[in-house]
Design brief:
- It is a single chain.
- The chain is mainly α and 343 residues long.
- It is built from 15 helices and four strands.
- Helices cover 69% and strands 7% of the residues.
- β1 and β2 form a beta hairpin.
- It starts with a helix and ends in a 14-residue tail after the last helix.
- One of its GO terms (biological process) is amino acid transport.
- Keywords: Amino-acid transport, Cell membrane, Membrane, Transmembrane, Transmembrane helix, Transport.
- It is a multi-pass membrane protein.
């Protein structure tokens, strides 16, 4: 039982990342009709926003500490971060420690700007082109962005820790009546799950309860009629592209302490996220979220030692096998709409 609970938790953790990326992909496809293969790169850029801010906070100056000496008796040279100089020792240390959560504020305007530039500068020229053309051009853009990150940050993963307050593990066992230390789960992975839940709920609430969101949903259903009402639906869809980029970027920011970011992390998540979108149903936001968590949990169970020993390599293909089964029985996915990508 404890192993099952632990795998469910692991699945919710993976599913959170899948669901956030798939949600952004579906927003873009549902509003603009564009299959955006550069969306994984937005996840990667968000992760490196956190890395960048963490590095900026640690920029320091060298001072001589007369109270400390080396083994030769010479005063030691120590590095003091500028944020410690500006805000004091305790506040400066707290800012450095909380670099990843603070990167959310840093990443939002950057990701929205990147989204606007991407949509206005490139993707708008492919709205009426075949989906194959959209896939090729956005996939090429993803490779370019990946190589830019590799050039500036190198090819190796860059560890960026969570705040010290969230570096331990939560004892689920005692809460559920098990013995102590039987079901331990990292605090930050729980934080990531709740963060993802808040973002997903926020996106759905924005689309459901705001006038802007209602117009966007109407445009997704019948773009031409909304345009005839005198509403500039294209401008609203461009804003939605920026918001979708921000969702992907925030998913990347908060994922940094879970997996040290590298230049190809966007591609690693992109393929799986597209499978999630297809399984959930192209253009279906609830389907993307449902499929994200479902496939995350299935992948987690398939990664158990007992399962791998019985079926070697199953953890590498389980998502694709499930996708094949679902699409054979439900060609439009779990919650797909009639007519979407069926022309």
């Amino acid at each position: 039982m404890d192993a099952i609970i632990l795998q469910i938790l692991n699945g919710l953790d993976k599913g959170s990342a899948y669901a956030l990326i798939a949600l952004g992909l579906t927003l873009i496809f549902g509003t603009l009709g564009v299959v955006n293969f550069a969306h994984g790169a937005l996840f990667m850029i968000g992760a490196f926003c956190a890395v960048t801010l963490s590095n900026v906070f640690q920029i320091s100056r060298t001072v001589i500490d007369e109270t400390r000496t080396d083994f030769l008796g010479n005063p030691l040279k120590v590095e003091i971060p500028y944020v410690v100089d500006w805000f004091g020792e305790s506040a400066g240390a707290a800012i450095i420690d909380w670099a990843v959560p603070l990167a959310i504020l840093f990443a939002i305007p950057i990701m929205i700007t990147v989204g606007f530039i991407m949509e206005r500068g490139l993707i708008k020229h492919f709205y009426k082109r075949p989906h194959a053309d959209q896939i090729l051009v956005t996939f090429g853009l993803a490779i370019v962005l990946q190589e830019v990150i590799k050039y500036f940050y190198g090819a190796n993963p860059i560890p960026t820790p969570a705040p010290e307050a969230f570096r331990g593990s939560f004892d689920f066992g005692t809460m559920l009546g098990f013995e102590a230390n039987q079901i331990l789960y990292p605090y930050w992975r729980l934080v990531y799950f709740f963060f993802a839940a808040i973002i997903i709920a926020g996106v759905f609430a924005f689309l459901q309860f705001t006038t802007f969101g209602m117009v966007v949903r109407a445009g997704m259903a019948d773009r031409e009629t909304v345009g005839l009402l005198g509403i500039d639906i294209d401008r609203r869809f461009t804003i939605m592209f920026g918001l979708a980029a921000a969702v992907a970027g925030l998913a990347g920011v908060m994922y940094v302490p879970i997996s040290p970011p590298n230049y190809h992390m966007g591609m690693d998540f992109l393929v799986l996220s597209f499978v999630v979108v297809v399984v959930g149903g192209m253009g279906s936001l609830p389907g993307a979220v449902l499929a994200g968590f479902l496939l995350g949990i299935l992948e987690s169970f398939a990664s158990m030692r007992e399962v791998i020993a019985f079926i070697p390599g199953i953890n590498q293909v389980i998502i694709y096998l499930v996708a094949v089964v679902i699409l054979l029985t439900l060609p439009r996915g779990l919650m797909g709409r009639k007519g979407v990508m069926e022309d």
